[in-house]
Design a protein that fits this description.
Structural class: mainly alpha
Number of domains: 2
GO molecular function: DNA binding; DNA-binding transcription factor activity
Pfam families: GntR
CATH topology of the largest domain: Arc Repressor Mutant, subunit A
CATH architecture of the largest domain: Orthogonal Bundle
Strand content: 5-15%
Number of helices: 5
Organism: Ligilactobacillus acidipiscis
Radius of gyration: 19 Å
Order of helices and strands: HHHEEHH
CATH superfamily of the largest domain: Winged helix-like DNA-binding domain superfamily/Winged helix DNA-binding domain
Largest sheet: 2 strands, antiparallel
Strand order of the largest sheet: 1-2
Protein name: Transcriptional regulator, GntR family
Number of strands: 2
InterPro entries: Tscrpt_reg_HTH_GntR, WH-like_DNA-bd_sf, WH_DNA-bd_sf
Amino acid sequence: MKFTDDVPIYRQIEQYIAGEIISGRFHSGQQVPSVRQLALQFSVNTNTVQRALREMIIKNILESRRGLGNFVTSDPTIIEDLRQNLINKSLLAMYKQLHALNISDVEIKGCLDDFLEKRRSEDGKHDRTEKCLL
């Protein structure tokens, strides 16, 4: 994993683990790799990984079981909230970036619709030309 300078490393590790949960690579109730394994995987200090996991435990995304390790929550509501948060953050970032370019909400919506149609077309589901020039 390549880290960026604009977000603390422990937050980036949190985001990575959250992505693994949302994508289903880490299932509900599944044990996550140990602090040492993750520290080796990311080439970071174990304290950095521990901080990321502690934050996720506080948010109830992970459950710590003494002597056993950390496990993904079994609560589907928490996982769905995590998923919705990620979607909202991504959309907000895109929205701010496009508005900074003076692109209207109507244009954004039209371009997003066109983009999605093009993606479906590339996947062989539809055959429609792209209208948006962004």
